[in-house]
Amino acid sequence: MRRFLVIALIAATCQQCSYSQSSSNSNKMDSTEKKSAENLNPVYSKTDTSKVVKTEEEWKKILPKDVYYVARQKGTERPWTSKYENFYEKGTYYCAACGNPLFKSDTKFDSGCGWPSFYEPISKGSIIYTPDNTHGMTRTETQCGRCKAHLGHVFEDGPPPTGLRFCINGVVLDFATAQEAEKKYNEKKD
Ligand SMILES: [Zn+2]
Fold first, then answer.
1. Looking at the domain assignment, is residue 94 inside a domain?
2. Cα dist. 121→77, 128, 136, 164 in Å?
3. N or C: which end of the chain has fewer CB within 10 A?
4. How far is the CA of 159 from the centre of ligand 1 (A)?
5. Active site residue 167
6. CATH no. for residue 94?
7. Could you report the per-residue pLDDT of 140-173, keeping only the tens digit for each?
8. 95, 98, 144, 167: which is the annotated catalytic residue?
9. What is the tens place of the pLDDT at every residue in 15-68?
């Protein structure tokens, strides 16, 4: 019932958006989200916490090329290229492949390494840790806790209070401001 209410509220909000914009019958969940991935991607949800399991073929169809390369093929974006590398707006970072909340902006810091860096994930289960011994290094890979997208690595040279440095490819991150997140929270509460 509660879930139904949330869906109804979101639907109502979307209707308002489309009235004020044009007569398009767009049913986008969030009109402020311009990311094309979200529109093509049926598993993308910022509220659904159920695990996502898809074949590589399926992922290839629903993810933009650059997201697929990092998330599914464990690629690495070139350093200093992410729009989130030098970006300090208040809000929440989500997995660009599935919408899972990953980090809060107040745990982001300037590590100087060339990739967006955080010292703490948003919750315990938001990230999966896997030993990575490729490229002649011993590292810990970080993956999305919901869809297992490759995010980056975690190192033990971060700032207090955790001493950790989550070094994350910006291409697999989606950002929403605090106001957007608050709106969603209030929708859930009603
Ligand atoms: Zn994910």
1. yes
2. 20, 10, 27, 10
3. N
4. 25
5. yes
6. 2.170.150.20
7. 999 999 999 999 999 999 999 999 999 999 999 9
8. 167
9. 443 333 333 333 444 444 445 445 679 999 999 999 999 999 999 999 999 999
